[in-house]
């Protein structure tokens, strides 16, 4: 048996997916300090691609507040070298 981590790294498709998940988690860690404390538990990292990142929110009210913060969040991500051009918000079902 090979360890899961080795198997993922050996497969180019799985390695790319793992890399995107890691990048998304890193982006979330970067912006969490900018969010009001009561919203931090209401937001989770979603899919990321070359130009956009999706944040998953628990309800529309959280999404509305994050829309107001989006310019600041984008600027922070770009300053950290994790830049994306767009942040999308999706309410988790």
How is this structure best described in words?
This protein is of the alpha+beta class and 93 residues long. The chain has a single domain, classed as DnaA, N-terminal domain (GMP Synthetase, Chain A, domain 3), CATH 3.30.300.180. 55% of the residues lie in helices and 19% in strands. The chain has 4 helices and 3 strands, in the order H-H-H-E-E-H-E. The chain has a 3-stranded mixed sheet. Strand 2 (52-57), helix 4 and strand 3 form a beta-alpha-beta unit. Helix 1 (4-10) crosses helix 2 (12-31). The longest helix is centred in the first third of the chain and has 20 residues, at 12-31. It is elongated and about 45 Å long. The chain starts with a helix and ends with a strand.
